[in-house]
Amino acid sequence: MAEKIAAVESLLSCFVCSETFRDPVTLSCSHSFCSSCLQKFWEQTKNKNCPICKRRSSKDHPGINFTLKELADSFAGRKTSSSTEEGEKKEVKKKEEVVCDKHSEVPYLFCEDEQRAVCPVCEFSLHQTHKVVPVEQAVRDLKEQLRSDLKSLQDKRDKYKQVEDTYNEMSQHVKKQLLSTETQIRAEFNKLHQFLKEEEESRLAALREEEEQKRKTMSREMKRIQQQMSSLSDSICAVEEELQKQQVSFLSSYKDTQSRARAQSSLSDPQLVSGALIDVAKHLGNLSFRVWEKMKDKVHFSPVILDPNTANRWLYLSDDLTSVRCGDTWQKLPDNPERYTKYIDVLGSEGFSSGKHSWEVEVGDHPDWTVGLAKESVDRKGKLFLSPEYGIWCLTHRSGKYNNGDKNVTVQKSLQRIGVQLDYDRGEVSFYNSEDMTHIYTHIDTFTEKLLPYFNIRKSAGSKTTDIKVSV
């Protein structure tokens, strides 16, 4: 038996340190050594050769041979780190459960003042003035408190998750906004490019037409000049021939030649026609400005642009952001801070902090609308009333009646176009019937922050889905 043990010990011993392997590694030559012993040997010899057969190792840092390690540890009677840790944890847990070594079986108490378990035999006199309860009750109460804290943490995490989800929705919506806005920008510039191209062709055609007219005029004048020159050349030749004749012959024929020559000599001298050149100034003078003036008829300015980021999910805005209607379906839009979620509202994109401003709104026959102004800080998520108290100055149409947020307003006839006027510095918001400029009412207040154009539109039962439109 001793011989067998010695043989096993020899197989499990390191050639370098002669001890039972610790973290053994096996080289490609099949010789094994303690990992630390092998590294020290290599450092001393300054090579990577096997200590036994001197063959060079193929690896600088050979991996642990775990099978050999388990055999060596078992033979040496070593405990693994995992079993040691497990034993230590059990020991700690046992110590944690025991408050007093002398009275481990006695039901413990819990001192709420010192926030710890105490032995009722050894420490009772030390806690007579403290609030002491059974450990079971203390654990029950404290666990209930911890559950409440857990619930608060879970609720807080849910809120963060909700915000994260909203950010994800906003991120996806931003991509859609990019594509949609990019498409509309290209479409608008294509219209402008088309207009400029057509205007360019029109002006080039006018230039070519004038050149054609001028060329024809000069051609006509040159033909007439050439005819006159030909006639004069014939007369010159006749006079020269007459001068070559003998005396008798000359005297008999000079009279007719002289008459024709004098008749042509009495003709007025030729004159250049004015305006024969192209009127370059007409074509180039203030060209950009005159094209821009013409372009103004093709483009339109709106004093108010609706902000799609504030629009309730039921509202649909036109491509140029000047019209809004209440749709039949709810749009999937992110619940960003600027957006109205409780009421079917939308705001203008730019606000006013001073000066005078005015615009008109075409409401047509729509039965349910509100137009006016709202504070930039107006609540867009919670309960809201259409009154200055809540930061809204407006004119409302509901069930055939008009209201200013505080009381009903009498109008002479049904309103189709409404004028809104703001004098911020004087604190006045006025509403007019744009068709005949009849004053409806004026609200006087003191403004302390930026005001934004405000619109509310709902689809009433049985009514058509129509737009309300902002205009100059």
TrEMBL record:
Task: State the InterPro entries in the record.
Answer: B30.2/SPRY (IPR001870), B30.2/SPRY_sf (IPR043136), Butyrophylin_SPRY (IPR003879), ConA-like_dom_sf (IPR013320), PRY (IPR006574), SPRY_dom (IPR003877), TRIM/RBCC (IPR050143), Znf-RING_euk (IPR027370)
The RING-type domain is annotated at 14-54
Q: Name one GO molecular function term.
A: zinc ion binding
Q: Which residues form a coiled coil?
A: 136-235
The residue ranges of the B30.2/SPRY domain are 284-472
Which terms are listed as keywords in the entry? Coiled coil, Metal-binding, Zinc, Zinc-finger
Q: Does the keyword Coiled coil apply?
A: yes
Q: Which Pfam families match?
A: PRY, SPRY, zf-B_box, zf-RING_UBOX
| Record domain B box-type: where | 95-135
Q: What is this protein called?
A: Nuclear factor 7, brain-like
Q: Which organism is it from?
A: Parambassis ranga
